[in-house]
Write a structure and sequence with these properties.
By secondary structure, the chain is an alpha/beta fold. It has helices at residues 40-59, 62-78, 80-91, 95-115, 154-165, 179-192, 206-215, 228-237, 261-273, 293-304, 325-341, 390-398, 413-422, 457-463, and strands at residues 6-8, 11-13, 20-25, 30-36, 123-125, 131-139, 142-146, 169-173, 199-201, 221-225, 242-246, 251-255, 283-289, 343-346, 361-364, 381-387, 405-409, 427-430, 465-473. The protein folds into 2 domains: 6-247 and 450-470, Aldehyde Dehydrogenase, Chain A, domain 1; 251-430, Aldehyde Dehydrogenase, Chain A, domain 2 (3-Layer(aba) Sandwich). It contains 14 helices and 19 strands.
């Protein structure tokens, strides 16, 4: 079995721990390789490498850094089919989604490469004569990137691209469920010409590797995507660092009585069961007007019962496996809870045999206060809640600790704009599902979903840089602000 190594200071090296772990194909539980079970010493080496590389990289003109990002994008395009198949093999999502995962990486590196010729600051008038005022963007320093398994190429790329173009150096820890995707991505960066020490990859557990990355005194910023509990730990233990947190959601789709039902069903099947429900933006709640509830459920069941489970590399597959055994157990635990809280319309079963497969599951007559309607399940499980009107739908949509994505289906523009105004979410869709972010727009949420940062678009630049304010006084005398003589 192939042994994979950490990437530190431009070299592939084994961990100081001399220990390894396996990554499995979730469709058949076959091991894909051995990976380094790293320790704190490995993190310290990676930080030292990033520290030594920072001066040269941060002083490299931003347009030159952008040229390397353009080359990364080009190499990702060249390797898209290979990497897409790897995403499907290691993570489990169907191939069209695996390819989409890689396309997001292509897009974000291309977009952020262009920022190398912008990185805009601002100019503004001074209150005094013969004085010039402006701001510029400056890199933060060494940044920690801690990424999840559900988008094993895209999410690391969302963080790497802006961090690099801003001039930071990086210590990167991927999920232990998808380390091979991260290694192949770093190889692309290496082949594109990233200087040694600028990007360092350390695999291993969150308890050891992640904790050291969070608390290390030399690290100036942390960007984390994952569960809320880990995010809370980071917020409490990071110290005085810039922290970006993306922590999940319990996303509603509101279906009004004037909605186009064919369009609704397409959006809900994609939103609830795409990526086997393993997205922070997955549609896990449908809030439907009671006038159309029965017809809506009948049409939805017809579609969901036709979904075919299997290996994501097969063209016939609609829904792939969950990521691991623990995910299967978690989803099924919520199914057992749901049977007491609502009516099971379909699914709710573990598929026997090799692989982590679970039948797409729908509950109806669910109370907004039910656990299955409030807690993030992160699997192919959907709750249907009925309401009497739009105001009630908005109240139900907002009565949750998360606030990432949201959606409304309606042919009434007044309904759409009221929902846009009142729903508590970082992202709102009208007549489309809750998933499908584009890299030139900010991505993130409110309330328990995060701490106010956004990824992608210009907000990605803001996350990985800081503002420096500059005053140039050419009056030839001491001038005091605020009208002081």
């Amino acid at each position: 079995m192939k042994l994979y190594k950490n990437y530190i200071n431009g070299k592939w090296i084994e961990s100081n721990s001399k220990k390894t772990f396996l990554s499995l194909d979730p469709s058949n539980e076959r091991p894909l390789g051995k990976f380094q079970q790293s320790n704190e010493k490995d993190v310290d080496l990676a930080v030292e490498s990033a520290k030594n590389a920072f001066k040269e990289w941060s002083e490299t003109p931003a347009p030159k850094r952008g040229e390397i990002l353009f080359e990364i994008s080009r190499l990702l395009k060249k390797n898209k089919q290979r990497l897409g198949r790897l995403v499907t093999t290691e993570m489990g999502k169907v191939l069209k989604e695996g390819l989409g995962d890689v396309q997001e990486a292509i897009d974000i590196f291309e977009y952020m490469a262009g920022e190398g010729r912008r990185l805009f600051g601002n100019t503004t008038p001074s209150e005094l004569k013969n004085k010039f005022c402006m701001t510029v963007r400056k890199p933060l320093g060494i940044v920690s990137l801690i990424t999840p398994w559900n988008f094993p190429i895209a999410i690391p790329a969302w963080k790497l691209a802006p961090a690099l173009v801003c001039g930071n150096t990086i210590v990167f820890k991927p999920s232990s469920d998808t380390p091979l995707c991260a290694i192949e991505l770093v190889k692309i960066l290496e082949n594109a010409g990233i200087p040694k020490g600028v990007v360092n990859l350390v695999t291993g557990t969150g308890d050891i590797v992640g904790r050291r990355m969070v608390t290390h005194p030399e690290i100036r910023a942390i960007s984390f995507t994952g569960n809320k509990g880990t995010g809370e730990f980071i917020a409490k233990n990071a110290g005085i660092k810039k922290v970006g947190l993306e922590l999940g959601g319990k996303n509603p789709i509101v279906v009004m009585d004037d909605a186009n039902l064919d369009l609704v069903i397409d959006g809900i099947v994609w939103g609830a069961f795409g990526t086997t429900g393993q997205r922070c933006t997955a549609a896990s709640r449908v809030i439907v007007h009671k006038k159309i509830k029965k017809k809506f459920e009948n049409e939805l069941l017809k579609r969901v019962r036709k979904l075919r489970l299997g290996n994501g590399l097969k063209k016939s597959t609609d829904v792939g496996p969950l990521i691991n055994k623990a995910a299967i157990e978690k989803v099924h635990k919520y199914t057992e809870i749901g049977k007491k809280e609502g009516k099971l319309l379909c699914g709710g079963e573990i598929i026997k045999g090799k692989g982590f497969f679970y039948k797409p599951t729908i509950f109806t007559d669910v109370s907004p206060k039910a656990k299955i309607a409030r807690e993030e399940i992160f699997g192919p499980s959907l709750s249907i809640i009925s309401v009497n009107n739009l105001n009630e739908a908005i109240d139900v949509a907002n009565d949750i600790e998360y606030g990432l994505s949201s959606s409304i289906y309606t042919e009434n523009i007044a309904n759409a704009f009221k929902f846009i105004e009142k729903v508590e979410a970082g992202i709102t869709y009208v007549n489309s599902s809750t998933i499908g972010a584009e890299v030139h727009l900010p991505f993130g949420g409110v309330k328990g979903t995060g701490n106010g940062t956004r990824e992608a678009g210009i907000e990605g630049i803001h996350e990985f840089s800081e503002t420096k304010t500059i005053y140039i006084d050419y009056s030839g005398k001491l001038q005091k602000a605020q009208g002081i003589d």
